[in-house]
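User: Just a sanity check before I run the rest of the batch. Below are the structure tokens for the first item. I only need the designed sequence back.
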């Protein structure tokens, strides 16, 4: 069974990666032992498990191998019903199949994923603290709709496997979906420390999660320091790290560029993003069994998108004129993997079209920019829910569509709808929250505006954000009207309480109740709306004038005086323009 375990370990079932040569070599050694002079006698259960792992190392596509493995595991479960631990491996096989296509949830795997969820819940009913069952449940329910359900199980996992650094990291798969950034940072920090203490290789994925959560907390300096944990080689030295470390470091830098570009200034311009040399010289010819082929394309695409994103919003990486170059590279990468990894190919193309929309907007063609980003939104809806872990595409087309709409003073309610779609996948995502906070202000949903403000202050930035973040949040929108006081009550709320009390004592409870009801009716949260037809003009959105094309490189922080000057200039040329503070957001 040691041979069986080693062969299983070379198949990273949920990562589109398999060290095929090592797996086959282990099974060959097993065959030599079984054909020896004194072979061991295998039980029927052992024979079933060894027969199942052999299915993973046949010739064939990933989906063929996955289906063969989970079918073999189902037979084992049926043959040995008392061996409930087999349910963990059966669910693993189903997830291996359903999470193919770069761990995205394609139509062909929906039934198998539902089966995996059912099976792993059955296992945990019989053994509530089974570490394999908890591990598989976190993966099986790693999507926006099920994050709240998975959270308690995810936090239980490291308590029943206290010596596992991976269990600590796995807890944050659910916490990423609930937007609990401080816990994501602390759990992954513990996982990294535990691995280092034991002399184990650090888990690149844990470093990446920690880095992304620090960005969401507005702690850019800490996020940058966290990159040192990838142990980059000295300047001029040969990089001998694993491809996992090389790719994850590049992806982390791309995320840093995109998240800091939101605030403008020079932060994203200063990052030394790798050139397009993230090649995978060791990738196997059979791309179905080697995730490095896919990871190379995915990481390169992230780097090119980050360069284009920073170029548009801050003028870095060559500015607006370089966007066609970055778009062309994304198109090549998308086409390169289109036949084999359609999920990631579509995601890369969404990033390309997003840059194309921004480039078109920067050149003054608002209508074409809107048409382009509508297409990207439609494609992103096709591949929802978003894949586990770090957001990919790096910036959702939902957020960029909201930016294109609001940057031209158009259909602010539709912009809110778009941001809500982004937040449905990643609650408390900082850029989306700030954008929605500002849109609520402009539309007049001041209670909701303060609710988002309090989330930013009390959740995302509760441990202290960098000064540039606090300055941006405090100065970007306070000139627009509504302020939220520190105790979580808006100025409008205070006025409501005072007036209601005056009416109650002066005119009776009926008068006070009438005023309260009238006020709450005006402040009622907008109902959730499904964005139905992206090709049609949105006639029911709140529109604030016609606006004008956003200016590339104009997303940086401006003083309140400059913001007021910009608004005054806009007012001279537009009857009801969008405040320029919103136009500058690098959403």
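Assistant: Here's the designed sequence for the first item:
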């Amino acid at each position: 069974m040691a041979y069986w375990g080693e062969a299983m370990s070379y198949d990273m079932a949920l990562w589109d990666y398999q060290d095929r040569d090592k797996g086959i070599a282990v099974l060959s050694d097993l065959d030599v032992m079984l054909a020896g002079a004194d072979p061991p006698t295998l039980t029927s259960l052992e024979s079933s498990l060894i027969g199942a792992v052999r299915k993973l190392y046949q010739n064939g596509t990933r989906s063929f191998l996955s289906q063969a493995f989970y079918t073999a595991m189902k037979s084992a479960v049926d043959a040995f019903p008392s061996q409930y631990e087999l349910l963990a491996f059966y669910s693993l096989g189903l997830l291996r199949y359903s999470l193919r296509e770069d761990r995205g949830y394609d139509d062909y795997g929906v039934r198998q994923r539902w089966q995996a969820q059912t099976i792993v819940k059955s296992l945990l009913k019989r053994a509530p603290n089974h570490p394999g069952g908890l591990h598989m449940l976190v993966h099986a329910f790693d999507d926006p709709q099920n994050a709240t359900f998975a959270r308690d199980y995810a936090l239980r996992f490291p308590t029943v496997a206290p010596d596992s650094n991976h269990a600590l990291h796995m807890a944050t798969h659910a916490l990423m979906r609930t937007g609990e950034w401080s816990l994501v940072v602390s759990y992954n920090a513990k996982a990294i420390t535990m691995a280092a203490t034991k002399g184990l290789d650090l888990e690149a994925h844990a470093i990446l999660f920690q880095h992304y959560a620090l960005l969401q907390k507005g702690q850019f300096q800490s996020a940058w320091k966290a990159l040192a944990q990838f142990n980059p080689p000295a300047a001029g030295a040969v990089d001998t790290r694993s491809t996992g470390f090389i790719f994850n470091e590049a992806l982390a830098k791309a995320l840093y560029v995109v998240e800091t570009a939101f605030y403008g200034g020079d932060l994203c311009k200063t990052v030394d993003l790798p050139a397009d040399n993230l090649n995978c010289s060791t990738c196997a010819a059979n791309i179905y069994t080697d995730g490095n082929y896919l990871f190379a394309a995915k990481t390169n695409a992230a780097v090119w998108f980050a360069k284009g994103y920073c170029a548009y919003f801050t003028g870095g990486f060559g500015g607006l004129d370089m966007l066609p170059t970055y778009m062309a590279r994304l198109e090549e990468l998308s086409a390169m993997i289109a036949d084999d990894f359609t999920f990631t190919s579509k995601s890369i193309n969404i990033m390309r079209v997003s840059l194309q929309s921004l480039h078109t907007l920067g050149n003054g063609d608002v209508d074409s920019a809107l048409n382009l980003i509508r297409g990207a939104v439609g494609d992103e809806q096709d591949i929802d829910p978003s894949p586990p872990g770090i957001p990919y595409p790096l910036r959702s087309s939902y957020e960029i569509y909201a930016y294109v709409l609001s940057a031209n003073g158009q259909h602010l309610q539709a912009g809110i709808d778009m941001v809500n779609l982004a937040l449905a996948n990643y609650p408390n995502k900082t850029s989306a929250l700030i954008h929605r906070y500002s849109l609520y202000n402009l539309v007049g949903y001041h209670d909701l505006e303060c609710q988002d403000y309090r989330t930013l202050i009390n959740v995302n930035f509760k441990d202290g954000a960098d000064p540039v973040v606090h300055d941006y949040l405090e100065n970007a929108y306070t000139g627009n009207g509504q302020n939220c006081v520190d105790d979580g009550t808006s100025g409008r709320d205070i006025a409501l309480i005072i007036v209601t009390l005056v009416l109650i004592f002066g005119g009776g409870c009926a008068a006070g109740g009438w005023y309260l009801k009238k006020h709450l009716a005006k402040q009622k949260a907008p109902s959730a709306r499904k964005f139905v037809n992206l090709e049609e003009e949105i006639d029911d959105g709140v529109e604030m004038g016609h606006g004008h094309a956003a200016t590339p490189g104009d997303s940086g922080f401006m003083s309140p005086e400059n913001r007021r000057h910009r608004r005054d200039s806009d007012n001279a040329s537009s009857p009801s323009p969008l405040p320029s503070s919103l136009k500058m957001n690098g959403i």
